[in-house]
Amino acid sequence: MVSVIVTLCQHTDEVSCCTFSPSLLATSSGDKTLRVYNTSDFSELPFSPLSGHGYGVHCCCFSPCGRHLLSCSTDGSVVVWSSDTGEVSAALQHPGRSPLRVCALAPDSSLLLAGACDGTVALWDFSCKTLRRCSAVSEASVVALCFSPCGQMFVTGCTHGDLKLWDTDISLLHAEKDAHDLGVTCCCFTPQFKVDGCCVEFRLASCGQDSQLKIWIVSQREGAACVMKLLHTLTSQSAPVLSCAFSSDGELVVSGSVDKSVAVYDANLGTLLHTLKQHDRYVTAVALSPTMPWIATGSMDRTVNVWRIRDGVSRTAAESMQTACQGRKLPGHSRLLVADWSEEDVQTWLREEGLQELVSIFKANNIDGAELSQLNKETATELGIESVGLRGRLLRKIEALRAEQSGSEAPDEFLCPITRELMKDPVIAADGYSYERESIESWFRGKNKTSPMTNLPLTATLLTPNRSLKTAITRWKSSQ
Predict the structure, then answer these.
(1) Can you tell me the distance from the alpha carbon of 165 to that of 145, in angstroms, rounded to the nearest whole number?
(2) 163 - beta bridge partners?
(3) How confident is the model at residue 322 (pLDDT cuts 50, 70, 90)?
(4) 157, burial (CB in 10 Å: exposed 0-12, middle 13-18, buried 19+)
(5) Cα–Cα distance between 250 and 435 in angstroms, integer?
(6) Is the pLDDT of residue 144 over 90?
(7) What is the spatial distance between Cα 185 and Cα 163, in angstroms, rounded to a whole number?
């Protein structure tokens, strides 16, 4: 079964988009704001709401690492926010100042795309926030776009109903005319892709004004043109389908409709698992947590419902999402950012650093990584660490730990997720994430056939050079 665990009612206008990071939920609205919630208890963060747009916000998304939150608006801008502080990191303007309907970040955070009402897409180099190009891709408004999990191509959908596949130079690879009668409303790729010899295969979901949700197989053989083949046409909703999203393991696909319902399907079989009815008006946004069995749905009724997937036929997918959360811990706590450490990780670190006498104090006060990273002289004293020598040793160890994990202040997307070191030879794995070649190859040699980021099984161990990311890193290094 699927049940509502919380209803969020802070927006004063219709909700336009929902998005999850591993630890946060963000929502956007026609009220010109974004709101950000901690998924541990769905409390709104102190810096929320975020106000920086002059008109309604149409779309929002987190960077893969969760460090950045992006939003785009009718005001023609994409704003990049810090997920930690809520501060504006950058504001990027469409060169023609056309209203923006949708934005997306590449899986490796190297490129940022935004689709505009004038039929163009603007492409920025995300690391240096510079515009690469702005090109016309349609005669109608671009209202849907998403990157493939490998980051080497993207799909656009327009109000005329066409789906088009492009490479990152905005060269057309394939056009699916009239994919949705009366217009496309949303599209998304599964996070995974399959590699069979020289053929790469992706799953794409799209929905539209024709009241249909479609699942496509997008494939390309080396040296051949891209092909799109329709796999499923899902028709359980009786009115235009406005939004769709896959679960992190690709097993579920969820859609929201003008008929006020949310449909949950088995993405492989194309069978309806659940129909959720809790909203009073159109369901305009759906999102699935990458780490927990949760679905967020936003509506023109100004509310966001967060649902928990429980038991029944969807249990496997729910459990796999829960496992992904538990699986964020890679072998050895040192492979995680300090802020992600559990209480047990902190206690293990204390023992490794020869601070065993502090373990009981930290355990009694439930000190996890986030607390550890904020620890200073005053809070150490409040914990009852009276020995000046012991307190000083602890603070020096914490300072050294911060320096060790700072990555020389390089942008987070330039750091290998496994080692947290600046990448020299970045490659894209089958999970869509970029790693240092030597690190991911060592991971595979250790008989690990799962994703270091999601803990889900990888369909292949093929590695694709990420040239755009390597170029961005080289450019960043030369500027230091």
Answers:
(1) 10
(2) 157, 176
(3) very low
(4) buried
(5) 21
(6) yes
(7) 10
Single-letter amino acid code for the residue at 168 = T
Residues whose CB falls within 8 Å of the CB of residue 165, separated by 6 or more in sequence, listed in order: 153, 154, 155, 172, 173, 174, 175, 176, 218, 226, 228
Q: Judge if pTM exceeds 0.85.
A: no
What is the CA angle 296-429-107, rounded to 5?
40
* Percent of the chain topping pLDDT 70: 90
pLDDT for position 318: 42
Q: Is 276 helix (H, G, I), strand (E, B) or coil?
A: strand
Residues near 178 by beta carbon (within 8 Å), at least 6 away in sequence:
161, 162
What are the tokens at 371?
């607390």
User: What is the chain's percent helix, strand, coil content, to nearest 5?
Assistant: 20, 40, 40
Can you spell out the DSSP letters for 306-330?
EEEE-SGGGHHHHHHHHHHHHTT--
Mean pLDDT of all residues belonging to the chain: 87
Q: How many CB atoms neighbour CB 131 within 10 A?
A: 14
What torsion do the CA atoms of 74, 151, 247, 77 make, to the nearest 10 degrees?
-10
pLDDT attached to residue 4 = 93
Whether the pLDDT of residue 317 is over 70: the answer is no
Q: Which residues are CB-neighbours of 317 under 8 A, at least 6 positions away?
A: 247, 249, 251, 252, 293, 309
Distance of alpha carbon 387 from alpha carbon 398, whole angstroms:
17
Nearest-angstrom CA–CA distance, 201 and 224: 13
In Å, what is the CA distance from 293 to each residue of 95, 175, 188, 463?
40, 35, 19, 29
Q: What average pLDDT score do residues 265-269 get? A: 94
What count of other Cβ atoms lies within 10 Å of the Cβ of residue 436? 20
- Token pair 């810096």 is found at 47
Question: Would you call 477 helix, strand, or coil by DSSP?
Answer: helix
95 pLDDT above the threshold of 50: yes
Q: Which residue bears the tokens 């292949």?
A: 460
462-475 pLDDT tens trace: 888 888 788 888 87
pLDDT tens profile 435-456? 899 888 888 887 667 787 766 7
* pLDDT tens, position by position, 82-93: 999 999 999 999
DSSP 8-state class, residue 222: T
From CA 140, how far away is CA 401, in angstroms rounded? 52
Bond prior to 49 in cis (omega within 30° of 0): yes
Q: What is the pLDDT of residue 223?
A: 74
Question: What is the strand order of the sheet 68-73 is part of?
Answer: 57-62, 68-73, 77-82, 88-93
What number of residues does the chain have? 480
Side chain identity at 116, as an amino acid letter?
A
